[in-house]
Design brief:
This protein is α/β, with parallel strands linked by helices. The chain has helices spanning about 40-55, 65-70, 80-100, 105-110, 130-140, 180-200, 215-225, 245-250, 270-275, 290-305, 320-330, 345-350, 375-380, and strands at about 5-10, 15-25, 30-35, 115-120, 120-125, 145-150, 170, 175-180, 205-210, 235, 255-260, 280, 305-310, 335-340, 355, 360, 385, 390-395, 400. The chain binds D-mannonic acid (CS2) and magnesium ion.
Length: about 400
């Protein structure tokens, strides 16, 4: 089989997505997700101007060799643009292989290790009461794990709490500027989880995202104060470019830690995993260079009892969602999968086999990834540049969003 062509599609059904389609001489095609929220066009150029010319004529079954060709062969390594482009190629090649062998991708990854993939949604509210109501709504829908984020008294807005019905951080126009107070957040959050636990009891897994906003000692303080509410995890407590900062957090709390949705290679994790400074890997198949590289990251993690907890926000397309479900169904050290539903128009552009039932998801048994891309419909949703917000402290200091 030979790769005869490849095209990149940028569309905006509810939000911007970058989709790669690889065509072969046997009529089988594969699709991959290359979406990088707020920097989509950089990945488009990386694919169109540099990767696609080198893909033509190759055997799409040589997934491992092609992965290294685009990782080592570029000379310049790592980074979210590069690794999102490599991921798009990799996902499309696994899709082709599954279709050609007439089997779902999970079968190429070792087969089913479980019947379903436990997922968690985003519950939020402007107040503790509204947040509890939203958590309860998801529990009533059958979720067994729920993330909870709340408005903070004294702050006009905060991460993870939408003003409208859906939560979409990337906005058209110039970046929105938000205001932040760590002090107000730290004083408030333990109260939130005390009341959420009182309301829903001990059996539901609760998760929370700090979104990179604490120093290590602040993270240690929050983790310790949340211990009575036994969270499933505390996510992105501190910017983790400095992996060793987690040594300090670990000293102060037993609250499980998840990190890395902004990471893009295993090298971002080597200290964190080998010193067991974290419990879950947030790096997604889209950010981390595809299924081929995430197999190696998950294998390293399994030696140190670290589990997967892939990022699954709505700015990762249904293609990444499908790839994550195939991967999570097969990998032994699975933890949990984030599942932020996509807008209805996105589900129309990306018809898929995966489905939700009683807190778990299943990728379906269609050959390949079990997701498709409706080019004609996608063309009716043209791309419009959108930026993620920026964040400033109350004194105006530029801070982590
Ligand atoms: C968040 C994301 O889902 C999460 O855990 O951190 O919503 C993140 O803010 C967006 O994916 C950024 O594009
Ligand atoms: Mg997050």
């Amino acid at each position: 089989m030979k790769i005869t062509d490849a095209k990149v599609f940028v569309c905006s059904p509810g939000r911007n997505f970058v989709t790669l389609k690889i065509y072969t001489d046997e009529g089988i095609y594969g699709i991959g997700d290359g979406t990088l929220n707020g920097r989509e066009k950089s990945v488009v150029s990386y694919l169109e101007d540099y990767c696609i010319p080198c893909l033509l004529g190759r055997d799409p079954f040589q997934i491992e060799d092609i992965w290294h060709y685009f990782y080592k062969g570029a000379y310049w390594r790592r980074g979210p643009v590069t690794m999102s482009a490599v991921a798009a190629i990799d996902m499309a090649l696994w899709d082709i292989k599954g279709k050609a062998l007439k089997t779902p991708v999970y079968n190429l990854l070792g087969g089913k290790s479980r019947q379903g993939v436990m997922v968690y949604p985003h519950a939020y509210g402007e107040t503790i009461e509204a947040t509890i109501e939203n958590v309860q709504k998801y529990v009533d829908e059958g979720y067994v794990a729920v993330r909870a984020q709340s408005g903070i008294p004294g702050l006009k807005s905060t991460y993870g709490v939408a003003k409208g019905k859906t939560y979409e951080p990337a906005q058209r126009g110039m970046p929105t500027e938000y205001e932040w107070s760590t002090e107000k957040y730290l004083n408030f959050t333990p109260k939130l989880f005390q009341k959420v636990r009182d309301a829903i009891g001990d059996d539901i897994h609760l998760l929370h995202d700090c979104h990179h906003r604490l120093t290590p000692i602040e993270a240690g303080r929050l983790g310790k104060e949340l211990e009575p509410y036994h969270l499933f995890w505390l996510e992105d407590t501190t910017p983790a470019e400095l992996q060793e900062s987690f040594r300090l957090i670990r000293k102060h709390t037993t609250t499980p830690l998840a990190v890395g949705e902004v990471f893009n290679t295993v090298y971002d994790y080597t200290t964190l995993i080998t010193e067991q400074l974290i419990d879950y890997i947030r790096m997604s198949i889209l950010r981390g260079g595809g299924i081929t590289s995430m197999q190696k990251v998950a294998a390293l993690a399994s030696i140190y009892q670290v589990r997967t907890g892939f990022h699954g926000a709505s700015d990762l397309s249904p293609i990444t969602m499908a790839a994550a479900l195939h991967f999570n169904l097969a990998v032994n050290n699975f933890g949990i999968q984030e599942y932020m539903k996509h807008p209805a128009e996105a589900n129309d552009v990306f018809p898929h086999a995966y489905a939700f039932e009683k807190g778990y998801m299943y990728p379906g048994d269609e050959p390949g990834l079990g997701v498709d891309f409706n080019e004609e419909l996608a063309a009716t949703y043209p791309y419009q540049r959108a930026y993620l917000p920026v964040n400033r402290k109350e004194d105006g200091t530029l801070f982590d969003w």
